[in-house]
Design goal:
With 417 residues, the chain is of the alpha+beta class. The protein is built from 16 helices and ten strands.
């Protein structure tokens, strides 16, 4: 038995094979390179062989494209959440940076290719780019200089702070604005799912627009990648839009409906918390070897009471975090039981689960670092790598405070948060 499979598996039969394929790919392509990825914050060529192997050679670029457009149709299936959780854990175990570069690539498609809302015209337009023989990257561009959390804080602000504008001119949108931080920016993105407003300052959600913008459209400028603390396989930068023109039908759905399904786009992103449970399973793997081989007073570290107690708490944290992750996946897969993915309740619960998992894995990772002693800070062991990456995951998607506010709002009917 693989040591990692001691943790419970929320697996259904088609997924078992896929999990093994991803694990193999990650072991062969990503594990040997991940330290180099982290140094290459301004060079995206270093991750290309691994991404090409995953996306083109193994075919995983097609995974979320509807079957009628040549894809595998997972986004229109009843197991999208579970599949994504499993998939993201396996990639995140190796490197959350490459995991988000891959996951963000198809993230904009969630608004047009997920059941029950499939926009056939836009799928026909963009699916061929994902089913071709070259890696193709998308991104959802929401965060702006005045604050990312505000844009995701739809229940209170309803898009009022969005400054990137889209003005209809004949049968084209003319877009102006400035975005920060999107995954796959820094020159990587080929297709942008842009969150903008048709009426700045409005808190009518009908004015929130989700518009597809091919990144090579004149007027789109992606800046140089930021130098982050980790996750350098994902590039993030400033992006400017200056009189960018796209056809009017590139808007995903239209007034009101864009905002509704944008909620789902945000909620679905919470399943990337699978990167955390994957990463912390890799921490467990390293810890297992370390405390089996390292001796103290002639006995392996794990045979000492004080250490064994800590080890048991770490694996309990991992196991329970995974239970929470797969509970989130089930909620996303079963709208008949839990409500639609765009509902405030499902969105809030997804944020709660994210908040819990992020806090827990940070604790588990820190405990592991303490057990490794100074080796915990040594890059050779890749524990500090996961510690850096886990912290980043806690910060994105509105950060911890938005999770807290939405949770308090839902359970305590707060009126002013
Ligand atoms: C690796 C990485 C990948 C990313 N990928 C994407 C992406 O694909 N697309 C994208 O659009 N963005 C992306 N982001 C940006 C990220 O989602 C935002 O940084 C995040 O939402 C927080 O926004 P902000 O940094 O503007 O902070 P702000 O929103 O300015 O928040 C600053 C602080 O205030 C807190 N806060 C916010 N609102 C309130 C409030 N009402 N009350 C109390 N406290 C509050 C926040 O939690 C935070 O601590 C990414 C970021 C990183 C690091």
């Amino acid at each position: 038995m693989n040591r990692l499979d001691k943790f419970s598996n929320e697996i259904f039969s088609p997924a078992i094979k896929i999990k093994d394929i991803i694990r193999n790919w990650a072991d062969n392509y990503v594990m040997p390179m991940r330290r180099q990825y982290d140094e290459a914050w301004d060079d995206d060529t270093i991750v290309e062989p691994a991404l090409k192997a995953l996306m083109i050679d193994l075919g995983f670029q097609k995974v979320f494209i509807p079957a009628e457009f040549g894809g595998w149709g997972v986004a229109e299936s009843d197991y999208l959440g579970t599949f994504a959780a499993l998939f993201f854990e396996e990639i995140g175990r190796a490197d959350p940076g490459i995991a988000i570069a891959y996951a963000a690539g198809f993230w904009p498609l969630m608004i047009i290719a997920a059941k029950p809302h499939i926009n056939r015209r836009l799928c026909a337009e963009f699916a061929p780019m994902y089913t071709g023989d070259k890696p193709f990257f998308g991104g959802v561009f929401m965060t702006e200089p005045q604050g990312g959390s505000d844009i995701e804080n739809l229940e209170i602000l309803h898009g009022r702070t969005i400054k990137t504008t889209a003005v209809l001119d004949g049968d084209e949108w003319v877009i102006n604005g400035h975005k920060l931080w999107p995954s796959n920016s820094g020159g990587v993105a080929d297709l942008i799912g842009l969150v903008c407003t048709t009426k700045p300052g409005s808190d009518d959600e009908k004015d929130i627009a989700f518009i597809f913008v091919p990144a090579n459209t004149p007027g789109v400028t992606q800046g140089k990648p930021y130098e982050k603390t980790g996750m350098s396989a994902d590039k993030n930068s400033d992006v400017w839009f200056e009189d960018v023109r796209v056809p009017s039908w590139y808007r995903a759905w239209g007034p009101g409906t864009d905002a509704l399904y944008f909620r789902e786009v945000i909620t679905m992103a919470m399943i990337t918390t699978g990167f955390c449970t994957g990463a912390v399973m890799d921490v467990y793997n390293t810890l297992y070897d370390f405390c089996s081989k390292k001796t103290l007073n002639g006995r392996p570290l794990k045979e000492h009471d004080a250490i064994a107690a800590e080890l048991s708490e770490i694996v309990t944290g991992i196991e329970v975090s995974r239970v929470v992750l797969y509970r989130m996946a089930r909620m996303l897969d079963r709208p008949d039981l839990y409500g639609p993915r765009w509902s405030a309740e499902v969105g809030t619960k997804a944020r709660m689960y994210k908040m819990f998992i992020c806090d827990q894995v940070m604790k588990d990772c820190e405990k592991a670092m303490e057990i490794l002693g100074t080796y915990g800070a040594d890059r050779q062991w890749d524990i500090e790598k996961h510690w850096r990456d886990l912290k980043i995951i806690q910060l994105w998607e509105g950060g911890k405070q938005l999770c807290q506010m939405e949770t308090a709002r839902h359970f305590f009917d707060c009126k002013t948060l």
